[in-house]
Structures are given as C-alpha cells and as structure tokens.
Amino acid sequence: MAGKSVRLTMAQALVRHLAAQYIETPKGEERLVAGGFGIFGHGNVICLGEALYEHRDILPLWRGQNEQSMALAAIAYTKAKLRKRVMFATASAGPGTTNMLTSAAVAHSNRLPLLLLCGDTYATRLPDPVLQQLEHFGNPTTTVNDAFKSVTRYWDRITHPAQIIQSLPVAISTMLDPADCGPAFFGLPQDVQGWAYDYPVEFFEQRVHRIRRQPADKREIADAVALLKTAKRPIIIAGGGVQYSEATEDLKRFAEAHGIPVVETIAGRANMLASDALNCGALGVTGSNSANALAEKADVILAIGTRLQDFTTGSWTAFDRDARIIAVNVGRYDAGKHRALSVVGDAKLALHDLEAALASYHVPQEWGDFAAKERAAWHSYVADNVSPQTREGGNRPMAYAQVIGAINEVCDPRDRILTAAGGLPSELAANWLTKGIGTVDVEYGFSCMGYEVAGGWGARMAQLEDEPEKETVVFVGDGSYLIQNSDIYSSVLTGKKMIVIICDNGGFAVINKLQNNTGNMSFGTLIKDSRLAIAPFSVDFEAHAKSMGALAETVTSVKELKDAFARARKADRTYVISLKTDPHEGWTAEGHAWWEVGSPEVSQSEKICAAHEEIEKGRVKQRPGI
Predict the structure, then answer these.
(1) Which of 47, 362, 478, 552 has CB atoms 3.0–4.6 Å from 545's, for a disulfide?
(2) Got the DSSP string for 84-124?
(3) Would you put residue 579 in left (φ > 0), alpha (ψ -120 to 50) or beta?
(4) Is residue 611 part of a domain?
(5) Which of 190, 199, 184, 126 lies closest to 151, judged by CA?
(6) Are 501 and 474 in the same domain?
(7) Residue 208 host element (H or E)
(8) Segment holding 237, helix H or strand E
(9) Are 581 and 403 in contact (CB under 8 A)?
C-alpha cells in the first residue's frame, strides 16, 4: 500500500480520517468519534455537508436548534463517557460559529474534549468581503475564528488540503491527552473544503487509541509518602479527575486502608457513595459543615484530580495556613498550585503507589472519630433540610432543597443527575446523597447557564448506549431554562428522552440572594425587580414544553412532585415537571465557606459598607497566593 494515494476533497479526507479512529474502552474497541451535531449554513453545508452525508451511518449527524447548545450536548456526552469518546460540532462561517465560543470555554475549563469544525472565509480572498465576514483592516488573516484561540487547547486554520495530514492527528492526540485534554478547533475556509488532494491511503487506515496512564515519578511518590506519614489530621480532596482515571474504587480502597476522610469537589461529586463511611461530603463555598470542618483542621491535604478552584478552597480560606498540600494530577499546571508538593501522574497509578508505600499507616483514632461525628451531624442536617416539614411540624416553603430531596428519594441509583449554573449546583452539592458512582454532572467549571437542557440531551445519548433503562434527570431554574431550552424539542425529535425539572423562582434568585447578602437592593435579578412595561408574570412552562412535543405537568407539592416523577419514568418521551420555588426562603443555610467577591470599598449605603467590612473579615484566613 506504500506510495498509493486517493484523491479527495479536504472535507472528504477529514471526515474519512475521523471515521477510521477507534478507542479502547471497557466495552472493547469503539469508534472514537460517536458522531456530531450540526447546523448548516453556506460556510459548511456544501463541502463538509457532502462529506458527512457519505458517512451518515457511521458518524451520525444530529441537527440541533442552536450552535452553543449543540456543542454543550457534545460536552455532556463526552463527560458521561469519561472522555473516552468524543463528538464534533459544526457551524457555518459567522455568528453560528461565534455562538460556540461559550461552549468551547466550558470544555476548556472542565478539561473535556470537543471537536469544533467551523466554516471560514476564503483562503484565496478573491471574493472578499463575503457574507458574514468580519473584516480587520490591519490584518486580513484575522477572522472571527481567531477568537477561539483563547478557549481551545488546539487551534488551526486549514489553508491547504495537505495540512490536515499533520494537524488532524495532533488535534486528536490533544483531545485524548489526560493532561492537555480540551477542545480542538478547525477553521475550514469555504474554498479549501472543496479543494482536492492526493492523500496517502495510510492516512485512512484504522487506528486504535488508548488513553495514556502516566506513572508518577518515584521521587515525587516518596516525598508524598514521607509527608503523609507525618500527618495527624489528613484529608483527601477527590476531584473530577478521579472519575476520568477510573480510580473511584482505588480511592475508596486507599481511604479505607489508611482511615483518611474523603471530601469531594463539585466536579468530584459521586466519587463515593453517601453511604461510604469515609465520605464526609462536599467541600467549600457550596459544601458541607463536615467537609469544611475537616479542611479547617487538616494538617496534610491530599488533593487528587482537582484544579482547586475557588468554590472548592473557599477562595483559599478553607484550610489552615500551615497545612501542606499534596497535589496528585496528570496536569503539571494543576499539580503545582499554592506551594503544593506535586505528584504529576495518573490518579489510579499514583493511588496504587501511595497505598503500597504507606504500608501500615493509619490516621489517629481521634481524627477518625472527629470525622465520623461531623459526617453524622451533616447527614442529620440534610435529612431535616430537605424535608417539607420542620422538626416542629410546620411547613417549609418549597425550595431547591425540598425538590432535590424528593427526587433523591425516588430516583434509581443509576439515574444520571445533571445541572449547572445558578443556585441549583450549590444546593445539589450540599443536599444530594449519592446513590451511584459517577451519576452526578454539575457543570460548575465555567458555570454555564443553558448547559442543563442541552447537556441533558447529550448525556442521554451516552446513557442510552450504556444504561438505556435508567433516566437522565435535569434540574434547571427558570432563568437558565429561558436562556436555552430548545433541545427539549431536539430530544423529542431524536427519541432521547430525559426528565426535566424546572424550578421557577421568578428570575435569577441566587444572584438576587448575593445582591442582598452584600447589602445591595434587589435590582435586575428577579423579574419583578427589573425594568418592566407591564406587571410581571410567570411563563407557562408546562405549555411551553408541550409546544415542543414533550409531555409536561405542573405540581405544587413534594408529594405531587414524587407522583409526577413516577409518571415521567413510565413516559415514552421527554417529560417536563414545572413547579414554583421560593426565591427568598429555604436556601441551605449551613455548610458554606468564605468566598471572595468584589464589594464596594465606599458607598452611600450603610448596608453596603457594613457588608464590605464583614466580607473583608474573612480575608484574614486567606492563604498567600504562592
């Protein structure tokens, strides 16, 4: 076969190469690219569209309703697949492409693979300026696609058909690299998509990829073990990287062998079951009293697979200033933060090495007792917090906690739970009791409103491949729903059923809460406090969902919610349950760590000045940023 070639357009060659890529998974060899999402325009329909049509059976194309939501669906799919399979999203040459900037940032922040194939202006420049071209007078090589350089791990503009021979494999290896994993972007000029080239047939040979497991340096392991052996009050912070390394069982075994309490990040929720004795809850700003109490007293912190963002660290006030951090991470960048002792390597392999070297080390009895006591107290608080009735027998206002508690009670252990920005991530992080490993997807890396419904569509595609009898359950607030909801229609059209629970609290209630807590008046957050021409009113979410082909109902109590969820499980298509939640009362009051927010140093409002002083008091515990 050496020396042989086949003449194809650049678009045809690109798609054919993608179709030849496979990956080794627990199920065997599967196609690396599971398909993709596309909205066609003049910038991608003729050439790339022709190539995708020829491969429509092996690289299925799903037509979305919005470019941003398509890419978000692709992100949720690959997250559910633990980064082992990817999907692409394609858009035309102008606003369709720029719509995906936010999605690229979500993938980049969360270290998730995403392939973006976007139309571009003409390489020849002969017809310039063309439809949707944004001209830069001083640099004719610049297009709107250059904006993606800041939100992608790999970026290229293909100006000659031969370039993909080198560039496409590099993009694939970037998406599959545990340390550099993230979105890859290709700008595809409209003329170059159709240009032909004699491609070597080897470019289209089947290739099977394997995710690299990089062992840690033995010296770094030795240093980490030496420090852990000195620990009187150690904790483990388990992040999302534990799941991507498929190290959840290793984490549990390691923790149990040495008696070390485990706390979870938001991305690491569902690393352990709520019933696991050493699972002491979520850490940080949206965490639990138990996890934060342990973090405050810990002398050695073993952080595994986490980038230690501010919601995890309480803006770096959650830990004692003298506490030592050991950061186990495949990414050198994440492993070296805040004077951490770095262990750069795969979490599964590193845990195995650490466990073997720690030998008989076990935490002191009093530390284990303290962790157990805090854990029990937090579980007692959550049980009360999610109840519709207070301990005195009175009725609580319907709030996120009660909605979460009700679904937590009746869902299957393997149902996939998904939410994103707003108040729901914090309430779910605090109140959700994990029933199944790896069943929670809370997008709080980029905190992207609109991820919920779109992500549910993509997550459902993944779930149907692995656990079709289980449900994908989306929690979404009215604010996020109104930003992006059209994939309810997509899910009905494509037969990807999900259960969507809309909590209507009249606007952006959690930001209103932040406003009020910092001394500000409600302004522009709740609908009723915005500039309006008429009296505020609620959207009929039930009718809206039904108009997109979903089944839907409105409920007014926890009992009605549980009954509706049972009907939703039996339904043959996407089912939407809408209910009112209180925007002011019922927020989880416990479990919070300090969070740095910018507040006015001077103001005409005494409340704002007092709130500023109160916020600044928390800064005394902040670790120096070195």
Answers:
(1) 552
(2) SSEEEEEE-SSHHHHTTHHHHHHHHHTT--EEEEEEE--SS
(3) beta
(4) no
(5) 184
(6) yes
(7) strand 207-209
(8) strand 234-238
(9) yes
User: Has residue 62 been placed in a domain?
Assistant: yes
Cβ of 316: how many Cβ atoms within 10 Å?
Answer: 20
Domain count for the chain, please give it. 3
Give the integer Cα–Cα distance in Å for 228 and 244: 24
Condensed to tens digits (0 to 9), the pLDDT of residues 18-44 reads 999 999 998 999 999 999 999 999 999
Q: Which residue is associated with the tokens 């003729």?
A: 46
Question: Residue 138 sits in a domain of what CATH number?
Answer: 3.40.50.970
Cα–Cα distance between 557 and 398 in angstroms, integer?
7
471, 415 contact by CB (below 8 A) = yes
| 396 shares a domain with 322 | no
How far are the Cα atoms of 387, 391, 397, 477 from residue 394, in angstroms, in the given order?
11, 7, 10, 26
Q: What 3-state class would DSSP assign to 531?
A: coil
CB 72 within 8 Å of CB 103: yes
Task: Fill in the amino acid letter for 475.
Answer: F
Clarify whether residues 202 and 242 are in a common domain. no
Strand partners, 155: 185
What DSSP character marks residue 265?
-
Give the whole-angstrom CA distance, residue 381 versus residue 398.
17
480 with 396, same domain? yes
Q: Which domain holds residue 103?
A: 5-209
- Per-residue three-class SS string for 461-485: HHHHHHCCCCCEEEEEEHHHHHHCC
Tell me what the mean pLDDT of segment 172-183 comes to. Answer: 97
| Whether the model pTM is above 0.90 | yes
- Whether residues 476 and 559 share a domain: the answer is yes
CA dist 238 → 215, 304, 611 (Å) = 18, 5, 33
The tokens describing 371, both together, are 């962790």
Residue 312 belongs to a domain with what CATH number? 3.40.50.1220
459 burial (CB, 10 Å; 0-12 / 13-18 / 19+) is buried
User: What's the CA gap between 135 and 140, in Å, rounded?
Assistant: 7
pLDDT band at 61 (very low <50, low <70, confident <90, very high): very high
CA distances from residue 56 to 35, 49, 164, 172 in whole angstroms, order as listed: 9, 10, 21, 20
Q: How is residue 270 written in tokens?
A: 């569902």
pLDDT in tens, 570-598: 999 999 999 999 999 999 999 999 999 99
The answer to whether residues 17 and 134 belong to one domain is yes
